[in-house]
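Second opinion, please. Please look over this fold, written as tokens:

===
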Amino acid sequence: MRTFISIDIPEKVREEIAMVSREFSGDGITMVKTDALHLSIHFLGDLTEQGINKVKDSMNEISAEPFEVGIRGIDFFTPNFIKVIFAKISKGEEHCANIYDQLGNSLVSRGFELEPGKYTPHVTLARVKRVKNPAALVSQIRSHSETEFGSFMVNSIKLKSSELTGEGPVYTDLYKLDL
């Protein structure tokens, strides 16, 4: 079962993001459905029931209070070729990073191998396979570098499963940790 840990985004904020992100829809660009927008903490990949239990144990070790997250601006990963278009976290980055670090340390101590690299809290909007005019897409993204999408209180993190379907991924909550 494919799994990840994330923060849910309230419907109002997801709708604000979706209104702008629709501009990026096109051939070679796969948009994330509005109801699937979330703030990723850790992608864990395929896990057995035993692995899921270890993740729950790691989540239960987290020491964090509720905090506010603000989402403002759009950007992209990989400067030479746009692969992912995302909404930026403008407030609460340090809290997300703290949860990421705590979880990462606990998961590694339980035998998990995590993706290497620096953690950048973000909300994935689209994945880009190809684009006819990359310069135009970059310009379009840059025009929303300071667009305000809203803020919300984070009171929990969730372990979710992801089932890939022809209609896109379907997420199911497996475990919720209240902060």
About this structure: The CA atoms of residues 4 and 179 lie 18 Å apart. The chain has a mean pLDDT of 93.
